[in-house]
Amino acid sequence: MQAVDIEALNQQIYADSAFIERLNAETAKVIVGQDRMIERLMIGLLSRGHVLLEGLPGLAKTLAISTLSKAVNAKFSRIQFTPDLLPADIIGTMIYNPSKNEFSVRQGPVFANFVLADEINRAPAKVQSALLEAMQERQVTIGNETFLLEEPFLVLATQNPIEQEGTYPLPEAQVDRFMLKVKITYPSKEDEREIIRRNMAVEKMGSNVEAVIQPEDILRARKSVRKVYMDEKIEQYILDIVFATRTPEEVGLSELRPLISYGGSPRASINLALAAKAYAFYNRRGYVIPEDVRSVCHDVMRHRLGLTFEAEAENIDQEDIINKILNTVEVP
User: Fold this and answer.
1) Rounded (10°) CA dihedral 317, 319, 325, 330
2) Which of 9, 11, 234, 309 qualifies as a cystine partner to 286, CB 3.0-4.6 A?
3) Cα–Cα distance, 167 to 220 (Å, whole number)
4) Which CATH architecture describes the domain 228-328?
5) In the chain, where does the domain assigned CATH 1.10.8.80 lie?
6) In the chain, where does the domain assigned CATH 3.40.50.300 lie?
7) What does DSSP assign to residue 129?
8) Per CATH, is 22-218 categorized as 3.10.20.30?
9) What pLDDT score does 120 carry?
10) Would you state the pLDDT for residue 2?
11) What is the DSSP string of 231-275?
């Protein structure tokens, strides 16, 4: 690709991504100290991927996605996962109407643009698979009818990292359906001071979030994200990172071989490339640089690496392995 084409593409992407600043300004009315979470939600939204959030209660996970849905003027629904939940509680069911002597479809809460699946590991496998099927196929079958889910469709699932009693952990194959797994941490002291002040104010800030864009704008932005230029060297860099999780000895990391039970699948390579493009778009740039790949690598890869008992015995987690790979694989 010629330099002049990249310049033109860069200008086009800069113009197409102008709404990002408006969206950030609107969400900042409500969300304090969780810029990275909003950024990751936007990456998932722009690249048509779903997000799994892991964080303690009270870190504004629900508030973040509901605020984002208001700013995008999209439909939002929240599902609290519990052990007694049924698949019909999520996707909907057939209801008998005695006056008409017929069955009609009652759609469930999954029929929304932004779906918050709160504590997804609280529900049994059958319920989890009902949601994950809707995520993957982007359609729902109720009775004999099949309904396409309206785009944009983003599932944000949360799980609590400390309470594991009475939970049904997501199988690896199902976790792989999520494009990103994001770990949420506490806000800084300054951010938390601002949170206290906002919540103590007479007129609570952020109660009047305005719609600054429409769902159609997100669909157009997704097409622009695909146009972001990725050089062959960046593609090779992504492949080197993913293949290093499968055969670490080939990049001189033989010590990782006994620690990894399985590495990233081709879905990891696809999602890493897509997330890097979305990150470049989010930063209003028409081309991908190695730093984009490194920025999203942990979120794309951490739930796609299997650890052996030896790794757990040595207190080595996915973060440590990804860091070693990123520090070893040659940056283009």
Assistant:
1) -170
2) 9
3) 39
4) Orthogonal Bundle (1.10)
5) 228-328
6) 22-218
7) H
8) no
9) 85
10) 45
11) -HHHHHHHHHHHHHHH-GGGGT-GGGGGGEEE---HHHHHHHHHH
